[in-house]
């Protein structure tokens, strides 16, 4: 289990597959860990280099993140240590926000980009904004469980949803809440036109965490984007792992 020391944290990561070509870098979302990408790692490792990490404060990494930019800095530090110049970030939800930050700050290093169930600005109706604000007053485990249960599309096995909700609730409270605030503060919608790299926007039709309408609003700003909509909710790497891998592979050509 390789680890990297960065300022204020120790990051756990995996680096597998062939060493030639441009690697895929998988970045998980809020309260998750690097194992969200198990299917993609198994799918791509036989013929590509694949890298994934537990973000600061998640999984087997320690530390407390404060901003999306700080998390992006951790990813960049890991890639610098691994002597990776160009790469393809594949980010889910909060991980997609990190990927967009990397693309804006280091455009010359991004070969292509894949955003899975992610957006460039958090937008709430007045009613939902009040509901989300009120939800932070709930007991911590109830708050996390409620958010994770809403992340899955209709018909997903309830026991699996409960299992992932329990796993998410093991993320330290401070990490959960600081990342929650960081996502709400994230806003690069007016800058996505600067991202010239080919980008795949992969989203679930039944996503109520980050609705597909918000992703489509973002897509209008991208100069070179491909949009794919899957019959699933927000947790595409768990709900439709084979479809995600297939879409990424097709996009890479």
Q: Write down how many β-strands occur, each being a DSSP E stretch of 2 or more residues.
A: 8
Helix and strand composition category: alpha/beta
Number of helices: 10
Task: Identify the overall geometry.
Answer: globular
Uncertain stretches: none
- Measured as a percent range, the helix fraction is 40-55%
C-alpha end-to-end distance: 31 Å
Please tell me how large the radius of gyration is: 17 Å
Biggest sheet: strand arrangement? 1-2-4-3-5-6-7-8
Mean of residue pLDDT values: 93
Indicate the proportion of strand residues: 15-25%
Q: How does the major sheet shape up?
A: 8 strands, mixed
Subunit arrangement of the protein: single chain
The sequence of SSEs as H and E is EEEHEHEHEHHHHEHEHH
GO molecular function, one term: hydrolase activity
Pfam families: Abhydrolase_1
Keywords: Hydrolase
InterPro entries: AB_hydrolase_1 (IPR000073), AB_hydrolase_fold (IPR029058), AB_hydrolase_sf (IPR050266)
How would you summarize what this structure contains?
With 253 residues, this protein is α/β, with parallel strands linked by helices. 41% of the residues lie in helices and 16% in strands. The chain is built from ten helices and eight strands.
Could you explain how this protein is built, in words?
This protein is α/β, with parallel strands linked by helices and 253 residues long. It contains ten helices and eight strands. It has helices spanning 38-44, 68-81, 94-105, 126-135, 140-151, 158-168, 173-185, 212-219, 236-239, 241-252, and strands spanning 3-6, 9-16, 24-27, 50-53, 88-92, 113-116, 199-204, 225-230. Strand 5, helix 3 and strand 6 form a beta-alpha-beta unit. The protein is globular, with a radius of gyration of 17 Å. It starts with a strand and ends with a helix. The relative contact order is 0.15. The model has no long low-confidence stretch (mean pLDDT 93).
């Amino acid at each position: 289990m390789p680890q990297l020391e960065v300022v204020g944290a120790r990051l756990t990561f995996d680096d597998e597959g062939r060493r030639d070509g441009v690697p895929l870098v998988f970045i998980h979302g809020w309260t998750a860990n690097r194992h969200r990408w198990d299917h993609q790692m198994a799918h791509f490792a036989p013929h590509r280099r694949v890298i994934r990490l537990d973000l600061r404060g998640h999984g087997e990494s320690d530390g407390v993140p404060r901003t999306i930019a700080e998390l992006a800095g951790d990813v960049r530090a890991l890639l610098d240590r691994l002597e990776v110049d160009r790469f393809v970030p594949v980010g889910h939800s909060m991980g997609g926000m990190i990927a967009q930050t990397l693309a804006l700050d280091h455009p010359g290093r991004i070969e292509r980009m894949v955003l899975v169930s992610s957006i460039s600005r958090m937008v709430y109706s007045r009613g939902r904004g009040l509901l989300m604000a009120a939800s932070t007053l709930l007991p911590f485990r109830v708050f996390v469980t409620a958010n994770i249960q809403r992340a899955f599309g209709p018909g997903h096995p309830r026991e699996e949803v409960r299992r992932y909700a329990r796993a998410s609730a093991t993320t330290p409270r401070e990490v959960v809440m600081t990342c929650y605030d960081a996502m709400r503060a994230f806003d690069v919608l007016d800058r996505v036109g600067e991202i010239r790299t080919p980008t795949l926007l992969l989203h679930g039709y039944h996503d109520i965490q980050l609705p597909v309408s918000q992703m489509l609003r973002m897509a209008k700003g991208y100069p070179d984007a491909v949009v794919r909509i899957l019959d699933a909710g927000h947790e595409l790497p768990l709900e439709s792992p084979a479809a995600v891998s297939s879409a990424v592979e097709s996009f890479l050509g």
